[in-house]
């Protein structure tokens, strides 16, 4: 009897593995077709979906404050930032973080308060802060955030200009912010821009 159960169990397991392999193969075909969609179309649809997904209650809820935030760095909800960006002539920076993330803590307390970073943020960006553990609009899912911290920089026309997954040092982040805000990203690669600063 035990041998029969073991053999039946192995057969069932083999069938489940085969079904999973078929499902993954079918999904892979769908993924390949989706990959043919241009990146800018995908990114633009992310912004549109994010904006459309915000309910009226979430539109008026304040952005998530984070530990270590400089008092003079104004926070915006995504809806406020998108509405104000064009008229203010500023970029939108969407910052996804969590309280349990050690890289977020470093970013919050060492990178954002850096004088070069803070100056650039205040001059050229509308700062949106989203706590990944308290995200009622599910913006992390819509923006396809896979880890923390993740930063999206949206152009003045609300098109994705850059995605930064993970923490970067303060000097590099300051360079990234000026690279985007000065329009250097339209003229050269970031490596070339950093070399031009030396």
Notes on the structure:
The protein is an alpha/beta fold and 198 residues long. The protein has 2 domains: 1-36; 39-196, Glutaredoxin. Helix content is 55%, strand content 14%. Strands 1-3-2-4-5 form a 5-stranded mixed beta sheet. α6 (115-124) runs parallel beside α8. The longest helix is centred in the N-terminal third of the chain and has 34 residues, at 2-35.
Summarize the structure.
The protein is of the alpha/beta class and 198 residues long. The protein folds into two domains: 1-36; 39-196, Glutaredoxin. It is built from nine helices and five strands, in the order αααβαβααβαββαα.
Jot down its keywords:
single chain, Glutaredoxin, 198 residues, 2 domains, 5 strands, alpha/beta
- Average pLDDT score: 75
Runs with pLDDT <50, length 5+? 1-40, 55-60
The name CATH uses for the topology of the largest domain is Glutaredoxin
Q: Which radius of gyration do the C-alpha atoms yield?
A: 22 Å
Element order: H for helix, E for strand: HHHEHEHHEHEEHH
> Given this structure, which CATH class of the largest domain is correct?
Alpha Beta
Number of helices: 9
Tell me the helix content: 40-55%
Number of strands: 5
Q: Which structural category fits the helices and strands? A: alpha/beta
Oligomer description: single chain
Whole-number total of structural domains: 2
- Main beta sheet: strand number and arrangement? 5 strands, mixed
**CATH architecture call of the largest domain:** 3-Layer(aba) Sandwich
Give the spatial strand order of the biggest sheet: 1-3-2-4-5
Note the overall shape: globular
Beta fraction? 5-15%
């Amino acid at each position: 009897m035990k041998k029969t159960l073991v053999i039946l169990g192995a057969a069932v397991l083999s069938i489940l593995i085969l079904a999973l392999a078929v499902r993954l193969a079918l999904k892979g075909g769908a993924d390949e077709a989706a990959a043919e969609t241009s990146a800018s179309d995908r990114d633009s649809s992310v912004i549109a979906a994010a904006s459309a997904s915000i309910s009226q209650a979430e539109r008026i809820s304040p952005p998530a404050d984070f530990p270590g935030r400089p008092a003079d760095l104004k926070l915006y909800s995504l809806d406020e930032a998108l509405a104000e960006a064009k008229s203010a002539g500023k970029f939108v920076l969407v910052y996804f973080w969590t309280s349990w993330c050690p890289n977020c803590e470093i970013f919050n307390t060492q990178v954002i308060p850096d004088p070069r970073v803070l100056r650039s943020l205040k001059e050229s960006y509308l700062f949106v802060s989203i706590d990944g553990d308290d995200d009622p609009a599910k913006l992390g899912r819509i923006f396809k955030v896979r880890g923390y911290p993740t930063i999206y920089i949206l152009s003045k026309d609300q098109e994705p200009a850059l995605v930064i997954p993970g923490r970067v040092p303060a000097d590099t982040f300051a360079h990234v912010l000026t690279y985007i805000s000065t329009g250097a990203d339209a003229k050269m690669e970031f490596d070339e821009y950093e070399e031009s600063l030396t």
